[in-house]
Amino acid sequence: MELHQLRYVVAVAETGNFTRASERVNISQPSLSQQIINLESEVGRKLFHRLGRKAVLTEAGEVFLERARRILFEIENAAKELGDHPTLERRITVGAIPTVAPYLLPTLITRCRERHPNLQIDVREDFRTHLTRAAVEGEVDLAIVALPVKDVRLSIVPLLTEPLLLVVAKDHPLARKPRVKAPDLAGETFVILGTSSSLASQIQRFCGDHHFEPRVGFRCAQVATVKALVALGVGISILPQVARDPADKANLVYIALSGGSPTRELAVIRHLQRYQSRGAEQFLTLLRERAAELALPA
Predict the structure, then answer these.
(1) Euclidean distance between CA atoms 11 and 36, whole angstroms
(2) Rounded to an integer, what distance in angstroms lies between the CA atom of residue 215 and that of residue 44?
(3) Over pLDDT 90: what percentage of the chain?
(4) What confidence category does residue 296 fall into, taking pLDDT thresholds of 50, 70 and 90?
(5) Residue 116: pLDDT above 60?
(6) Range of the domain at 152
(7) d(CA 142, CA 91)
(8) Which residues on adjacent β-strands are paired with residue 239?
(9) Which pLDDT band, with edges at 50, 70 and 90, does 298 fall under?
(10) Pairwise CA distance, residues 283 & 108, whole Å
(11) Which of 84, 87, 233, 241 has the smallest number of CB atoms closer than 10 Å to its CB?
(12) 153 and 271 together in one domain
């Protein structure tokens, strides 16, 4: 049994197709199929049902796939641990949700360059669901996401708690009110992120808790777009405090809702069995420092 055969099994299982799997692992489809046949012969069980162009795991294949992933995961960890020497270049991949990445990561990367010049940080900005899956599958070393996250395979360490603030254009009527309560938002048009965003889901829940459904007029992919549309006066939004920028004062007003603004909790997640390299530990130290500077400890 060879390691490349394990990788081929994982590729076929994840793509559901021998042709797509061969493209992923960069070998010809006949060669991949033959390797799977050889492996099946060695273990004495069929691992896949061949259903035309579709490949579906057998019961034995399901069991084998779990072990194959575990073996490959441990081998990857072993290689990283052996290579994690203080005199060598180090590289980590850090994920962050869109409402965090632009506001925390640039400062952290700058500090890493100053204190740990050998540490290379690759960034993946994505929504919570995708980053959670990436952490489970070992595609990121660490990810900064909004809670809740529930997966027994992950280490989930709370990082900070921050208020979510109402944001309106400077000339919006709500900007002139001495107090703004959640029910005051019932008749407003909302500008929010897309449905995959954890922040969008939290806004929906917050409005529901106050007995109204938000009227969503605009869904955006980036916080910068949300701010631009709110500044135009076409709607209002709710954004995390970390997204508040000094330059926003020219066009936007941030308001803490009377009676208690909603909050969100950010956390760092990683695979429980993933080897935590020296580089990941160094990044975490800087991240905790930055959270403390925000004066919003969890």
Answers:
(1) 11
(2) 59
(3) 71
(4) very low
(5) yes
(6) 90-160+265-293
(7) 12
(8) 165
(9) very low
(10) 8
(11) 87
(12) yes
pLDDT in tens, 60-83: 999 999 989 988 888 887 777 666
Residue 155 sits in the same domain as residue 273:
yes
pLDDT per position as a tens digit, 136-166: 988 999 999 999 999 999 999 999 999 999 9
Both 138 and 274 in one domain: the answer is: yes
Question: CA 156, CA 152: separation in Å to the nearest integer?
Answer: 9
Q: How far apart are CA 137 and CA 72, in angstroms?
A: 11
Produce one character per residue of 129-167: b if its CB has 16 or more CB atoms within 10 Å, e if not. Answer: ebbbebbbebebbbbbbbbebeeeebbbeebbebbbbbb
For the chain, the average pLDDT equals: 90
Selected residue with higher pLDDT from 161 and 261: 161
Residues 139 and 199 in one domain: no
Other Cβ atoms within 10 Å of 50 Cβ, number = 12
Q: How many CB atoms lie under 10 A from the CB of residue 297?
A: 11
- Give the pLDDT confidence of 206-219 residue by residue, as tens digits: 999 999 999 999 99
Q: At a CB cut-off of 8 Å and minimum separation 6, what does 164 contact?
A: 199, 202, 203, 206, 238, 239, 240, 241, 261, 262, 263, 264
188 and 224 housed in the same domain = yes
List of residues 6+ apart from 27 with CB closer than 8 A: none
Going by their DSSP bridges, the two strands 154-169 and 215-220 should be labelled as: unpaired
End-to-end CA distance of the chain: 48
What 3-state DSSP class applies to 243? helix
Residues 181 and 212 in one domain: yes
- 224 and 195 both lie in a single domain: yes
Q: How many helices (H) and strands (E) does the chain have?
A: 9, 11
Does residue 278 contact residue 90 with C-beta atoms inside 8 Å? yes
Question: Per the structure, how many domains does the chain have?
Answer: 3
CATH of the domain at 176: 3.40.190.10
The helix (run of H) or strand (run of E) holding residue 237 is strand 237-240
